[in-house]
Amino acid sequence: MQPVKVGLLGLGTVGGGTVNLLERNRDEITRRAGRPIDVVHAAARHPDRARTCSTEHMRLEYDAFAVVDDPDTEIIVELIGGVDLAKELTLRAIERGKHVVTANKALIALHGNEIFARARDNGVTVGFEAAVAGGIPIIKAVREGLVGNRIEWLAGIINGTSNFILSEMLYAGREFGEVLAEAQRLGYAEADPTFDVEGVDAAHKLTILASIAFGIPLQFDKVHMEGIGQISTDDVAYASELGFRIKHLGICRREGDGIGLRVHPTLLPERQLLANVDGVMNAVMVNADPLGPTLYYGAGAGADPTASAVVADLVDVVREFTLEPENRVPYLAFQSHSLSDEPVVGMEAVDTAYYLRLEAQDEPGVLAEVTGVLSQAGISIEAVIQKQPAPGAETVPVILLTHRVRESKMDAACQAIEALDAVHGSLVRIRVETLA
Ligand SMILES: NC(=O)C1=CN([C@@H]2O[C@H](COP(=O)(O)OP(=O)(O)OC[C@H]3O[C@@H](n4cnc5c(N)ncnc54)[C@H](O)[C@@H]3O)[C@@H](O)[C@H]2O)C=CC1
Ligand SMILES: N[C@@H](CC=O)C(=O)O
Ligand code: NA
């Protein structure tokens, strides 16, 4: 049986994991794909460096273009990360008539529309299962398994690094910076970890999920993006007192006349399955009609889980070798000529409940002033906690939970509360979702 010859770009965490997995499960993978899959040529920035995988049976060199141009390589696996060079290499591979597998969510979220069009023109396929939620086969599940459903909303923990940090802050009381450094050591974090903690990586993934769920073009610039940087251990503790956990979620949902796309920290009732997804684990909940809610859970980052998704795509590509291009599963689940122009709405049109924390003077009547602003704005309050002042402190922390409200109304109410003389500094606001 003639092996399928793969060219691999990047031998870091995921590249090394992919080589190891192809070796470890070679027999099973061959039985599933119908042919063995061999990495025959790979590019690495430091070809002589000690690696986590064997490079014995492959040509190894510095120049990634040489791997793409090698007439021997049939499939190119792009695992260098970044955007510009990755795009150039991907388009070049496509033009050379090669199939591409990538784990690069930034590349797909920003340039997927163009890449898929070029792949269609050239009759090749581009696999990107590893780009969203690591090892969880979420692209496959939504694109194929749920194909008979209308998707109402989708919400997920889709950045392993942020979830790892939040879990360690909650259960071990550890400091943000120390946990982030550990996530980097474990190979979970992006090359630039601000992508993880500022919500950029989750926004890349949500962009892809939203397109597949709703059949809209990839629109990264329309995602409302907040990271976990503003979450303090106090907020984690107060949320817990109220029966909630704080999770960083990506949410896309039909909102009024369009679709809302947002990633931000969110309070979730602690009994919810998603609230109990900890560490580097990811989970995506999809609410579809008529199926109802389904939940997809698994490791969202790291060498082995991500390699699992890369290899799944490789096998899919090999199985598709004999398929006519028009019979392949469409990239964004919907046929390319059937993508919709349904608008993505701004955050002001999104409805959500809120956790608010503020520092107020410890005087009678202050709480009534704050709740008065909310009730004047028609915002109902679900719970209020007023903490004891710290010794010597002029102010006390006040925590409020509200019912669902249009975000634009809440913006105005928060400004009015911050303008009260008795309220010091700015409010902390975290959205609350019950995902019902
Ligand atoms: N680490 C993870 O858990 C996951 C990573 N990803 C994505 O997978 C991709 C790779 O990520 P990691 O393996 O974690 O990164 P990494 O930094 O461990 O590996 C990237 C490797 O590519 C090499 N490289 C960079 N430019 C190159 C070039 N021009 N030619 C040859 N080699 C080059 C680097 O030296 C490095 O060894 C990224 O797009 C990332 O977003 C996706 C899912 C999970
Ligand atoms: N940095 C990412 C890696 C997987 O996509 C994460 O932490 O989730
Ligand atoms: Na995946």
Give your account of this protein's structure:
It is a single chain. This protein has 3 domains: 4-135 and 304-336, 3-Layer(aba) Sandwich (Rossmann fold); 144-300, Dihydrodipicolinate Reductase, domain 2 (2-Layer Sandwich), CATH 3.30.360.10; 350-432, ACT domain (Alpha-Beta Plaits), CATH 3.30.70.260. It starts with a strand and ends with a strand. Strands 7, 8, 9, 10, 11, 12, 13, 14, 15, 16, 17 and 18 form a 12-stranded mixed sheet that branches. A hairpin with a 2-residue loop joins strand 11 and strand 12. The longest helix has 18 residues, at 105-122. By secondary structure, it is of the alpha/beta class. The model has no long low-confidence stretch (mean pLDDT 95). The protein is built from 14 helices and 18 strands. The ligand N[C@@H](CC=O)C(=O)O binds next to helix 7. Ligand LTNE7NMQ is lined by residues 134, 159-161, 188-190, 196, 201, 300-301. NADP(+) binds at residues 9-16.
Which key terms come to mind for this protein?
single chain, 436 residues, alpha/beta, Dihydrodipicolinate Reductase, domain 2, 6-stranded parallel sheet, 36% helix, binds 1,4-dihydronicotinamide adenine dinucleotide, binds sodium ion, threonine biosynthesis
What does this entry show, briefly?
The chain has helices at 13-24, 26-33, 64-69, 84-95, 105-122, 138-145, 160-172, 176-185, 194-197, 200-214, 233-241, 303-320, 366-376, 407-418; strands spanning 4-9, 37-43, 59-61, 75-78, 99-102, 126-127, 150-157, 224-225, 244-255, 258-269, 281-289, 292-299, 344-345, 351-361, 381-386, 395-402, 405-406, 423-432. It has 436 residues and is of the alpha/beta class.
